């Protein structure tokens, strides 16, 4: 324990390392509304605001969960191989020690890893797009972070975690972030059931994105924030972190081009913008576990292979009959799996060594053939845990009347925005939404209309 009253705690650490990781954490934060914009753009107009709401809610709720016990359950000292401790409950004693990363004080490491927890929860919520009740969603997210994300992250990144001790490589979260959220989103979609659509009796309903502009803007935020996501995972301002960013950008670019070309031949000779964005996200997911392990020329096949496999995985959900409308499983669950396996093939010891003092056996590139087995063990354990535990949690919640996870058919028809929020993305509805009276209105204005650039909505007399 250090005493801030008698010691220069800042002087214990390299300031450049702390600045790099703090800025990287802030870049990760911008990814979360980026996911909201991406999901909102892919949805139908009447549900668009609910997905933006979910991204902002995830920031708030997961921030509290991380403070309350999430950080301690993941990185707390005296952890077992499978579960963290509560030694740092409510961030008790989280200050200048370095239990999480040797190069950083705990408070900086806690901030950075908290952003990873937030983006993971936000990604996972896409599995129940357009049909989830928002109150139970908040309860579910808090519990899910505790019983799914925290254990998976603890296994992978805590020095005592069993996957860490096994020797599985995961530079920035291919397992704890992408695979856990992707497979849990698949479970959320499965337990919720398909969206109601009278025209789709068989198969899974498909809808055009209501705003490709939002899809592009969300992808821009994600891509930009990913430089903090992967680059900051070095834990210091080393060449390894900067090298990871070159890998990140190259894999995303190759993934975007690949998905777009695949869609060109599969979708009527059209250069689809949504395909370009989906491929970029797939490439980003694929490179995440190996960004600080693989030579830069392997970022190209990682981006290409992940995009191709994820593209065809989108069709698999139709075969399974599971309505994952945001393709969370295909992009994050499958993409993370592919990226983790490719890391086992292409990891090189000299890349990890660019962070001086880091030593690894490498992957097949170094003739360390067992590494692929370690990667598969990590993938299967995280995927199975995330899917099974999420299913159990949702089935239990569904048996509690006030925690039923799905909207009624009538609420789904009018849209989540009207049924659950009472606000609209574009204010294009004439549905009366009750609002608190914020100022007195003259009596002679009872039947006047309130005008804005979008609509003129009659003000109900009983609310004047």
TrEMBL record:
Does Transmembrane helix count among this protein's keywords?
A: yes
**Pfam families in the cross-refs:** Ammonium_transp
Bias (Basic and acidic residues)? 437-449
Answer yes or no on keyword Transmembrane: yes
Looking at the UniProt entry, the stretches that span the membrane are: 20-39, 51-69, 104-126, 138-157, 169-191, 212-229, 241-262, 274-291, 297-316, 328-352, 372-396
- GO cellular component: a single term: plasma membrane
The main place the protein resides is membrane
Show the GO MF annotations.
ammonium channel activity
Query: Where do the record's region annotations for Disordered lie?
Result: 437-464
Q: Give the Ammonium transporter AmtB-like domain ranges.
A: 19-426
Q: Give UniProt keywords alphabetically.
A: Ammonia transport, Membrane, Transmembrane, Transmembrane helix, Transport
Q: Where in the cell is it found?
A: Cell membrane; Membrane
Q: Which family does it belong to?
A: Belongs to the ammonia transporter channel (TC 1.A.11.2) family.
Q: What is this protein called?
A: Ammonium transporter
């Amino acid at each position: 324990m250090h005493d801030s009253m008698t010691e220069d705690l800042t002087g214990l650490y390299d300031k450049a390392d702390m600045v790099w990781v703090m800025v990287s954490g802030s870049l990760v934060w911008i990814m979360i509304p980026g996911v909201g914009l991406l999901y909102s753009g892919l949805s139908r107009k009447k549900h668009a605001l609910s997905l933006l709401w979910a991204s902002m809610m995830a920031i708030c709720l997961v921030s509290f969960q991380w403070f309350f016990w999430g950080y301690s359950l993941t990185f707390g000292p005296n952890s077992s191989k499978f579960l963290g401790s509560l030694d740092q409950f409510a961030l008790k004693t989280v200050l200048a020690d370095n239990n999480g990363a040797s190069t950083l004080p705990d408070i900086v490491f806690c901030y950075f890893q908290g952003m990873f927890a937030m983006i993971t929860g936000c990604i996972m919520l896409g599995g129940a797009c357009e049909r989830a009740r928002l109150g139970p969603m908040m309860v579910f997210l808090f519990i899910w972070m505790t019983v799914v994300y925290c254990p998976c992250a603890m296994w992978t990144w805590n020095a005592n975690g069993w996957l860490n001790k096994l020797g599985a490589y995961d530079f920035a979260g291919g397992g704890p972030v992408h695979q856990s959220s992707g497979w849990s989103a698949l479970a959320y979609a499965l337990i919720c059931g398909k969206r109601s659509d009278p025209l789709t009796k068989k198969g899974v309903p498909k809808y055009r994105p209501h705003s490709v502009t939002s899809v592009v803007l969300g992808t821009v935020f994600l891509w930009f924030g990913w430089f903090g996501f992967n680059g900051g995972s070095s834990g210091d301002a080393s060449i390894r972190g900067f090298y990871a960013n070159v890998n990140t950008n190259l894999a995303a670019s190759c993934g975007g081009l690949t998905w777009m070309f695949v869609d060109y031949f599969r979708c009527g000779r059209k250069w689809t913008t949504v395909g370009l964005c989906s491929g970029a996200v797939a490439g980003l997911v694929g490179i995440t576990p190996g960004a600080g392990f693989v030579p830069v020329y392997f970022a190209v096949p990682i981006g290409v292979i992940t995009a191709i496999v994820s593209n065809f995985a989108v069709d698999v959900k139709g075969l399974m009959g599971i309505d994952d409308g945001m393709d969370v499983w295909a992009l994050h669950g499958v993409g993370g799996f592919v990226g983790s396996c490719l890391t086992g093939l292409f990891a090189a010891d000299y890349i990890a060594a660019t962070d001086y003092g880091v030593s690894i056996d490498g992957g097949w590139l170094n003739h360390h053939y067992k590494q692929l087995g370690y990667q598969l063990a990590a993938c299967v354990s995280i995927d199975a845990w995330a899917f099974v535990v999420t299913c159990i949690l949702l089935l239990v919640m569904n048996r509690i009347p006030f925690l039923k996870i799905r909207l009624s058919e009538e609420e789904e028809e009018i849209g989540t925005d009207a049924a659950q929020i009472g606000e609209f993305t574009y204010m294009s509805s004439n549905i009366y939404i009750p609002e608190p009276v914020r100022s007195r209105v003259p009596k002679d204005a009872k039947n006047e209309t309130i005008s804005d650039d979008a609509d003129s909505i009659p003000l109900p007399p009983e609310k004047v």
